[in-house]
Specification:
Elements: H1 2-21, H2 29-56, H3 72-97, H4 110-136, E1 140-142, H5 148-179, H6 185-198, H7 212-228, H8 234-253, E2 256-258, H9 264-267, H10 277-292
Antiparallel strand pairs: 1-2
Helix pairs in contact: 1-3, 2-3, 3-5, 4-8, 4-10, 5-6, 5-7, 5-8, 6-7, 7-8, 7-10
């Protein structure tokens, strides 16, 4: 009995906390601002604590400073804490305003897993064609790292799937849904994709700036994927997961070296596909494939 009372009190305190945080009757345009402000406010103490712990471990290189380039060792604990908090903030907002994750396109059933797999296959096929063509043309050279590949690839895949799920829930789910209450789908998609692209500058600026158009276009492709998936996030989640997994794996294992036979504007500045014409062409091709499925979507 005491446990039940404790749970009720805990739920009431949580509800009161988020009610104060999201103090706004019309949770439409201001809701996105409130969400990001709350998300950052809850995350910053954890980020500071993580930095202090890393410094105490005498790893001073792991100390993070906003708007300065960070290493993988710095990024992992910061990303993990940031993305683990996001569902909590959305849960609090949903409790207050009577929404649910399903209203943002996240419905846990067999269908979303099916769409996740299809999105993953579409993205993987496109990437195979992209790098296959560049290999045949002599634009890239592959560096095989041996057995280390297997041990590193699986953890990266799991992290990519988790990060992509949360980013889709936030940007193609919550933010896009809220913006659609005030704007047309086209304007809402453009704004949500712009927010998605610009926020990548938090972690790194020099190499991210040339990728902004590609990141924006990628966000638009993910919006189209949600539309094709009849409002669900599964297809976008699958596409996002395979792209994050592939890019992170290539960077971590340094599997690809660009030969310089063509300018960086073609293959991507700083070796980033999204900062080049090939990456943009890849996204447009994926968008075209999705557009063909707008009216027919045979796997649904």
């Amino acid at each position: 009995m005491q446990c039940d009372d404790g749970i009720k009190i805990g739920c009431k305190l949580s509800r009161d906390f988020f009610a104060r945080v999201f103090e706004c009757k019309t949770f439409i345009a201001a809701s996105s601002n409130n969400f990001f402000a709350t998300w950052v406010c809850l995350w910053l103490p954890i980020a500071v604590a993580s930095t202090i712990i890393l410094q105490k471990n005498k790893d001073t290189s792991a100390s993070w400073q906003p708007f300065k380039p960070i290493s993988a060792e710095q990024k992992l604990p910061l990303l993990a804490s940031l993305y683990l908090i996001a569902p909590l903030v959305l849960w609090g907002a949903n409790k207050i305003f009577g929404n649910s994750f399903s209203s943002y396109g996240l419905v846990w059933n067999w269908s979303i897993l099916q769409s996740l797999g299809i999105g993953f296959v579409i993205g993987a096929t496109g990437l195979a064609i992209l790098f296959g063509l560049q290999t045949l043309l002599g634009w890239v050279k592959w560096n095989v790292a041996g057995k280390k590949n297997i041990s590193v690839t699986l953890p990266i895949l799991l992290i990519a799937v988790g990060i992509s799920a949360i980013e889709e829930l936030i940007f193609r789910g919550f933010v896009l849904t809220q913006l659609q209450q005030d704007f047309s789908i086209y304007i809402a998609a453009a704004i949500a994709s712009l927010i998605f692209a610009v926020l990548h500058l938090v972690w790194e600026q020099k190499e991210t700036l040339p990728q902004l158009p590609g990141l924006w276009l990628m966000g638009m492709v993910f919006v189209l994927a949600r539309y094709v998936d009849k409002g669900n996030l599964g297809l976008a989640w699958g596409l996002h997961s395979v792209l994050v997994w592939a890019i992170a794996t290539l960077d971590t294992l340094e599997l690809v070296t660009y030969t310089g036979k063509v300018p960086q504007v073609v293959t991507g500045k700083y070796g980033k596909p999204l900062a080049g014409l090939t990456g943009i062409s890849f996204l447009l091709a994926i968008g075209a494939v999705l557009w063909l499925g707008v009216k027919t979507y045979p796997w649904r």
